[in-house]
Design a protein that fits this description.
Number of strands: 27
Shape: elongated
Strand content: over 45%
Largest sheet: 5 strands, antiparallel
Mean pLDDT: 87
Distance between the termini: 85 Å
Helix content: under 10%
Radius of gyration: 30 Å
């Protein structure tokens, strides 16, 4: 507690606390250093919820300053995330802890700022063969000042909220985060079918939909759909993360993301480009497409067959330059699908004239990088 800004001096401060839901209250005096008041309310067994409020007196002019209504809660000990996420109030899908204070611990899977500066996600590690259902949770920081990185092991203290039916832990204050270690392995995404992902079980959990296909391109909200099962068993994918992939219907993809609930729907939220992979086939192919550029034959006598491999759909260009860096011919400059593409160049420049013998360069530019190949023209 910080001293209140009045023209009168605070003479004493007490913290009142209750462990029986406010039926009875104890109190203890608080001491100050640099206008910050602290008080010890003792020790309690794990699982105890303590309600408290602070009351202050000044030098007699105003007397007590007690909150008009209510109190704050704190929780003793650390509760498992799965207990908070997986236990429900009777007849609802709201957490049984909703409205209560709780402390949980986990590994940061989405850092503040990746989706929003005001929230991040943590998840409890799980052993191979086990299911991580209910093991992740969204943490809300109203100040937007908490600084964390993926892989940080943390404990957080806050109140459980059902924010538009999405369970989240609202920090008591921005300092209610303890970092125990950094650089830990982030829990591996749990492989699920797209039919299984839209479920309360996976809210806040990092999952992956392998060998899927894009079924719908982004709507007005930037959301698109994928399936790795039947066409009707789709999962929505959001655009909160900083990825550059532009979905194209029938693209083969593998998508990783945390499951979130918004506007009555569950969806995956990829964090960045590394969470979206292009795959060689569905469902058999598992090898990612590598950026590649091949020219055949080389040296070129009459014409050249160019093969391009594009990992991610989007804008791509293919251009020919001479040794002075001057543009000779643009062979491609448009949005194309991921995969392999073939283009034939007959050896003519932009004006339709055959280029002279010599050294030239073929440059391919894509959203995933660029490649340049040396090419010899021999007439």
């Amino acid at each position: 507690m910080t001293a209140m800004d009045y023209n009168y001096n605070i003479t004493s401060v007490k913290v009142f606390y209750s462990t029986d839901d406010g039926a009875s209250w104890d109190s203890t005096a608080m001491s100050t250093a640099d206008s910050v008041y602290t008080g010890d309310i003792g020790t309690y067994p794990d699982g105890t919820t303590v309600e408290y409020y602070v009351e202050a007196w000044n030098d007699g002019i105003y007397g007590s300053h007690k909150p008009a209504v209510g109190s704050y809660d704190l929780y003793v000990g650390v509760e498992a995330i799965s207990e908070v996420q997986g236990n429900f109030k009777a007849g609802s899908d709201s957490s049984a802890y909703a409205g209560e204070a709780v402390n949980v611990s986990g590994i940061v899977t989405v850092a503040p700022g990746e989706y929003s500066p005001n929230y991040f996600f943590i998840e409890s590690p799980y052993s191979a063969g086990d299911s991580p259902a209910y093991s992740g949770i969204k943490v809300y920081d109203r100040t937007g000042t908490v600084v964390l990185s993926r892989g940080d092991q943390v404990s957080v203290c806050g109140d459980v909220w059902e924010y538009y039916m999405e369970t989240e832990l609202a920090l008591h204050f921005s300092g209610a985060v303890a970092i125990h270690s950094t650089g830990n392995d982030v829990p591996n995404p749990y492989a699920l079918s797209t039919a299984s992902i839209p479920s309360e079980n996976w809210e806040g959990v990092l999952v992956i939909a392998e060998c899927a296909t894009v079924t719908e391109e982004p709507d007005d909200h930037g959301e698109w759909k994928i399936t790795n099962a039947t066409p009707s068993d789709t999962c929505r994918v959001g655009d909160l993360g900083a990825y550059t992939y532009s979905p194209v219907v029938s693209d083969p993809v593998s998508v990783t993301g945390v499951v979130m609930y918004a506007y009555g729907l569950y969806m995956m939220e990829p964090r960045d480009d590394s969470d979206i992979g292009q795959w060689a086939g569905v469902p058999g192919g598992v090898e990612p497409i590598r950026l590649a550029l091949r020219i055949s034959p080389n040296p070129v006598t009459s014409g050249a067959d160019i093969k391009m491999a594009i990992p991610v759909a989007g804008k791509a260009s293919l251009k020919v330059f001479d040794v002075q860096g001057r543009l000779v011919r643009t062979l491609l400059d448009e949005k194309i699908a991921a995969g392999e593409h073939a283009i034939h160049w007959g050896g003519a420049n932009t004006d339709g004239r055959r280029v002279a013998s010599g050294i030239y360069f073929m440059k391919m530019e894509t959203r995933k990088g660029s490649l340049v190949k040396k090419m010899v023209i021999s007439r």
